[in-house]
Amino acid sequence: MGKEIADRVRGVVHELWLVSDNEHRCGLLKMLKDLDVSKGWVKMALSTSKKDWNKWLVRCGIDWEGKATRNDIVSQLEDLLRRFGWSETWMCEELWRFVGVDVDEFRRHDIEPCSWLNGLEKLSDLRRPYWLGLRASDLATGKLDDEIALEIGTTNSIDAVFFPVLLGTIKTPGLAIKWKKSMPAAKYVSKSIGLSYYVDLGTDKWPWPIELSVDEFERMLNGFGDEELAEFIAGEVDGDGVVWYDYENGYVAVSITACKNCPKRLILDVLKEVIARRFGIVGNDGSLGGAYALVFGGEDAVKLLRRIAKYIHHPLRRLRAELILALHDRRISPEEFEELYKPTKYKRGG
After folding, report:
1. Smaller CB count within 10 Å for the chain: N or C?
2. Are residues 258 and 268 in contact, defined by beta-carbon separation less than 8 angstroms?
3. pTM, entire model
């Protein structure tokens, strides 16, 4: 069914709901259930909260929970795939092959390209500072009645694998697909596909503020221990960060971007001061792709990576961090580093 037709049908259902009395509303719900229409589609069409939805199901004597939930179905499919040899590591290796990275070559140099999977299961605890860092960068939160939605979007291949795995530590995410205008770097692409992954949670499940004032944010950062602060920074880097190396000039850089005149920029100003006071690592104001960037360069970037690398879970940023640290620890030669770094020059999302 085309999107335009689906939207019209949803609109008709919504209008019927608005003009119906209680008896006819119950009849409408029973008819839609008998037609095997998904519960999520009906809730969206009716624009009703979870609380009101449950009230109507009780009032109308409808049990809409007979089918397996999406989480159950995904879990069953994963179990089936594992019997045929599927694993998270296999998925990771296929991702790297897709973007041209030779996983075996990295492993020959004792660099594990799938180390970003290590410790990922710990993020099932939303109280981890990583989630606040991701929220301060790329993770959007929205509150509707008794639910909070966490959403994060992308148009690049690596993030398209990483984000559902990340959100999947909480619960199986939903997916929304949209056409996006092409990016300036996408020379031969007039449109790109935007993927948005989301999970809906009860308001009591999200432990962090929905909106942060600068003062509140600074108090929270100052209340973190060193490892908690490092984990927070890793969340920021995984969201809006870039890790790169200019091997012609021998320059390492870690940056976190934000729009020039928005609350995120003020948050980065606070973060810069906190990192300098706590770790003695100095960041500078810069720009990247037309946006403001908090940039750590040279030895400061290396010091920062030593602090946060184990908490970075974005595949490309983690791989580059591991590679840069291997060079600085003299575990690989400059020539080996150059050959290994080349295939990580993925155009977007680094």
Report:
1. N
2. yes
3. 0.77
